[in-house]
Amino acid sequence: MSVELIFDGGMGTMLQDVPRDATDPRWSCNEYLNVVAPDAVAAVHRAFLKAGSNVIETNTFGANPTVLSEYGLEDLTEDINAAGVRLAREAAASFPGARVAASVGPGSKLPSLGHISVDESAAAYRRQLTALFEAQPDFLLIETCQDLLQIKVILAVIAECEERFGRRIPVMVSVTVEENGALLTGSSVGAVTATLEPYRLFSLGLNCATGPDKMEEPLRILAEESPFPVSCMPNQGLPEIRDGKAFYPLSPAEFADRMAVLVDRYGITVAGGCCGTKPEHIAALTAAFRKRGLLP
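Request: output the structure for the sequence above.
Response:
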């Protein structure tokens, strides 16, 4: 089995170095850069594509109105999501075969923990997903999921959009597993697989929280139990705090070598990086996969 899709790395990591207007708190929202610093976002997309990614994620991870309202940006929900897809689409156009995955993150409020009601969560995602459906990405990536109830809410809203727009967009789900092997809300990987089995998913996998090594056991479970292709997009190792900042310990070569082992061992077909990973990590990843004969 070979890796069919190589995703990009950490968009947030790359955008940390973008100059900001310190007098305007809205600039601390990465998704706002889609409309006020589009060239910076486009440059990140191009860097990952040049490194070997054949799928790039839109800069829309936190672009639902619940999150955007924390910055006073909820009225720009539609504009930010549309711009996110457009920027990624324009960058991908120069790379034959490259595709765009619209990123849908977990937000800052989880229904299972009582932060937000199911109806409120659905209303927020309805605005984001309507804008994304109108922009027509190649995939929808529901990522960094920590709450099974929230995943089901998002999937229900996607079903509404499919009916309204009369078309489907392939849906990928990626959950985040803590070091104890469960989601933040306590669900096991087995419970995730069983709950999502009835849905039509393009892939089911893991991203964020830890590095490749800490993902091995949940990946083993997914490989054995998931009816869907498996994805894996870890951080650049388990983050540490150094001088008050997050530090990710794995070099590009270390990250790539450990990922190649997991891909070979568990038949992963969708791979990439999350927090801390930069174009050099994706370049090393692509080279390691090619060396091991893991690319088509």
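The longest helix spans residues 118-135.
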